[in-house]
Amino acid sequence: MASGGGRTPANFATRQKARAPQGSVKIVKLCQQLGLGEGGFYRPGYRDGAKLSLRMMCLGMNWDPDSCSYGHKRPFDNAQPPNIPEELRKFVQDAIQVSHEFLEQSMGVANAVEKLPSMSPDICLVNFYGTSGKLGLHQVHELLSPMI
């Protein structure tokens, strides 16, 4: 059952679970650091004055929940979102590679890249929820299919 250097589905899953906590902590710390700088966390709202009960930060481009569109600057303060850090790009690439391995090794998919193409993110939304923060179940229809 072993192949490719002793990678069985059980070993594969164990290896990925062991990596997850340290990678998650590193990403949270990175986002906290970025969120304190220019273009960092803010409390988004709508034209009618209603505010979302979370803090948000955009990386790469700004997402405006009021107009449901992306732009290069935040409309309310003209701040430019921080670039997506290389660590986050690498995390995405690693996650896709792990997914390819899983699809091929555990699911028997012949060409995982056709099912899940490789990509490099150009936009990232980071939400921070305090103890009273929440975001209701929703689906952003503008993001379906061609952009994902």
UniProtKB/TrEMBL annotation:
Pfam families linked to this entry: 2OG-FeII_Oxy_2
Every Alpha-ketoglutarate-dependent dioxygenase AlkB-like domain range: 28-139
GO biological process, one term: oxidative RNA demethylation
GO molecular function terms listed in the Swiss-Prot or TrEMBL record: broad specificity oxidative DNA demethylase activity; ferrous iron binding; oxidative RNA demethylase activity
Cofactor: Fe(2+)
Family matches, as InterPro entries: Alkb (IPR004574), AlkB-like (IPR027450), AlkB-like_sf (IPR037151)
Keyword Metal-binding belongs to the record: yes
Cellular compartments per GO CC: cytoplasm
Keywords: Dioxygenase, Iron, Metal-binding, Oxidoreductase
The family this protein is said to belong to: Belongs to the alkB family.
Name recorded for this polypeptide: Alpha-ketoglutarate-dependent dioxygenase AlkB-like domain-containing protein
Annotated source species: Eleusine coracana subsp. coracana
Gene it is expressed from: gb10489
